[in-house]
From TrEMBL:
This is Peptidyl-prolyl cis-trans isomerase. It comes from Psychrobacter piscatorii. Keywords: Isomerase, Rotamase, Signal. Residues 1-24 form the signal peptide. It catalyses: [protein]-peptidylproline (omega=180) = [protein]-peptidylproline (omega=0). It is an enzyme of class 5 (isomerase). GO terms for biological process: protein folding. Belongs to the FKBP-type PPIase family. Gene3D superfamilies: 3.10.50.40, Peptidyl-prolyl cis-trans isomerase, FKBP-type, N-terminal domain. PROSITE patterns: FKBP_PPIASE, PROKAR_LIPOPROTEIN. Its EC number is 5.2.1.8. InterPro entries: INFPOTNTIATR, PPIase_dom_sf, PPIase_FKBP_dom, PPIase_FKBP_N, PPIase_FKBP_N_sf. Residues 158-243 form the PPIase FKBP-type domain.
């Protein structure tokens, strides 16, 4: 059953992406689909139809945020029932290609805007942060503050370290935390962002530092999951062990 459902969803998702180019945004009329009530007591065919529709929409809503559900339903019904298409295959392909190109161009513009804004905000933050008591800065622009000085050994770039940490954006948003996961993490120090590789070599086992990492020694213009391009990052790090 799982294999059939997966294949069906894949095929229907392709149909959805084929039909979305026909949409325009009026979305004001209640469709027949909106009046259908689905419960556990509904027939098997009703539940199958609803399940496929829900999963397909949920999986694609971020890709097509301005989808007109009325015209999508019309296109889906025409295609499924074998009715004549309002547009030729060539027209639909052209519409979809144009839509995709416009979305990609808009995404690139949005990312560039965010990159510029984040770079400006990060530079301003670091300039002010450098004035705070206890904050030191290295030649790379890395800033750090000693919260607790360690007494053990310091790692080299080629060492494996065990740490607890919390990563935040400059607005205070936590994007990653070993504390939340309830366990420390191990990694080779030369396989992380440059700000970490440099910063942890300043520490000793048992120490706890706060690092303020400029974007060019963090994730740069590429960004990362949950991290926009050119974001300045703040990490609180406990160095538990050098291995």
């Amino acid at each position: 059953m799982k294999k059939i459902t997966t294949l069906s969803i894949s095929a229907l998702a392709s149909a959805m992406l084929l039909m979305t180019g026909c949409s325009t945004n009026n979305g004001s009329q209640e469709t027949a689909a909106q009046s259908v009530s689905i419960t556990e007591q509904s027939s098997a065919s009703e539940k199958v139809g609803y399940s496929l529709g829900f999963m397909m929409a949920e999986g694609n809503k971020e890709a097509v945020k301005d989808l007109n559900l009325d015209t999508f339903e019309k296109g889906f019904r025409d295609g499924y029932e074998g009715n004549d298409s309002a547009l030729t295959q060539e027209q639909m392909q052209e519409v979809l290609m144009t839509y995709q190109k416009e979305q990609e161009e808009q995404f690139a513009k949005d990312m560039q805007t965010k990159a510029t804004e984040n770079k400006t905000a990060g530079t301003a933050f670091l300039a002010e942060n450098a004035k705070k008591e206890g904050v030191k800065q290295t030649d790379s622009g890395l800033q750090y503050k000693v919260l607790k000085e360690g007494t053990g050994k310091s790692p080299k770039a080629t060492d494996v370290v065990e740490v607890n940490y919390e990563g935040k954006l400059i607005d205070g948003t936590v994007f990653d935390s070993s504390y939340e996961r309830g366990e420390p993490i191990e990694f080779p120090l030369n396989q992380v962002i440059a700000g970490w590789t440099e910063g942890l070599q300043l520490m000793k086992e048992g120490g706890k530092y706060e690092f303020y990492i400029p974007s060019d020694i963090a994730y740069g213009e590429a960004g990362n999951a949950g991290i926009e391009p050119n974001s300045t990052l703040i990490f609180t790090v406990e160095l538990l062990k050098v291995k």
